[in-house]
Amino acid sequence: MFAAKAIGNLEKPEFYRELADQLGALLAGESDPIANAANTSALIFQMMPDLNWAGFYFLRSADELVLGPFQGKPACVRIAVGRGVCGTAVERRASVLVEDVLAFPGHIACDAASRSELVVPLIRNDAVLGVFDLDSPLPGRFDNDDQVGVERLAAIYLAASS
Ligand code: SME
């Protein structure tokens, strides 16, 4: 059994160092990309405060993301590249941090409670495989420390999964 250690009281950089260690331990010895995406979503949703959604979308063709493992309310299944925050992160091949989703043109509202969002692309050998998406009911929930920390978590997921 994997037991997550309480780290909610730590400052963000230290919080993400601890969470990265825990994710590495959780995924150690397993390379299945779906199983690892499921456990990555579960750990992050459990450990990060003020989230209402955490999960994966995978590129199933050159122009469309398809929903993968996640935690939170049921979500839209298909997102075209270039659409919404997720499709924008694929198009830009870079993380997209949205402090106020109501002010982001084309934001796709899967859960009406979402107010801010952080989407990190999954890139291996120059190929975008998908995105990891975090939603919060709080405006401005994510900052640069979160972006750096979640990019590191995404890298740990990619390194573990084949
Ligand atoms: N808000 C995302 C859609 C996915 S849900 O948040 C789970 C977007 O605009 O791409």
Please characterize this protein's 3D structure.
The longest helix is centred in the last third of the chain and has 17 residues, at 144-160. This protein has a 6-stranded antiparallel sheet with strand order 3-2-1-6-5-4, sandwiched between helices. The protein has one domain (12-160): GAF domain (Beta-Lactamase, 2-Layer Sandwich). 37% of the residues are buried. With 162 residues, it is α+β, with helices and mostly antiparallel strands. The protein has helices spanning 12-27, 33-47, 84-92, 144-160; strands spanning 53-61, 64-72, 78-80, 96-98, 116-124, 127-136. The chain is built from 4 helices and 6 strands, in the order ααβββαβββα. A hairpin with a 5-residue loop joins β2 and β3. α1 (12-27) packs antiparallel against α2, α1 packs parallel to α4 (144-160) and α2 runs antiparallel to α4 (144-160). Methionine sulfoxide binds at residues 53, 75-76, 79, 84-86, 107-108, 110, 114, 117, 133, 135.
